[in-house]
Amino acid sequence: MFPGASDVSQQGIVVYVTIAVVLVVAITTASERIAKVFGPIGRAWFDFAKLRREAAAAKRSADVAELQRQIDGLADALRSQSARHERQLGEVELRREADRGEIQHLQTTVVSWERWAYEATIAAARGGVTLPKPPSN
């Protein structure tokens, strides 16, 4: 045995009383009927435990409300961001269509100039005219 330590078997009553007190406190915390059996002390302990439970429930409700507020804020931000992205996408689509039109116009212009240059070269060759070489880019 450790020096200075007392034997638990000599203090058995203390252990049993401690266990009994813990059980009584736990039971009076859970049941109002049982708390009344222990008189004003049991009733006071039950009321104290009830106040603690109510305070914990109020805190949980406040936490839930705060989380809901944060979720609502995030949802609003996401909706706003989504609307902005939709507008940007619409603008990109309009620019893309405008660019397609410009590309089509340029392709048509190039083809018509190529056709004109081909016909001019043929006409010049028939007439014995030598055309200068086109500039290189």
Describe this structure in words.
There is one protein chain. With 137 residues, the chain is mainly alpha-helical. It has a domain at 14-90. It is built from three helices and no strands. It has helices spanning 12-30, 32-37, 39-127. α1 crosses α3. The N and C termini lie far apart (103 Å). The mean pLDDT is 87.
Low-confidence segments, given as residue ranges, are: none
Specify Rg, calculated over alpha carbons: 46 Å
Order of helices and strands: HHH
Quick one: biggest sheet?
none
Give the tally of β-strands.
0
* Proportion in helices: over 70%
Q: What structural class should be given to the helix and strand makeup?
A: mainly alpha
What does the average pLDDT come to? Answer: 87
- Taking the alpha carbons of the first and last residues, their distance comes to 103 Å
User: What percentage of amino acids are in beta strands?
Assistant: under 5%
> In one word, what is the shape?
rod-shaped
Coiled coil: 48-95
Transmembrane segments: 12-30
Keywords: Coiled coil, Membrane, Transmembrane, Transmembrane helix
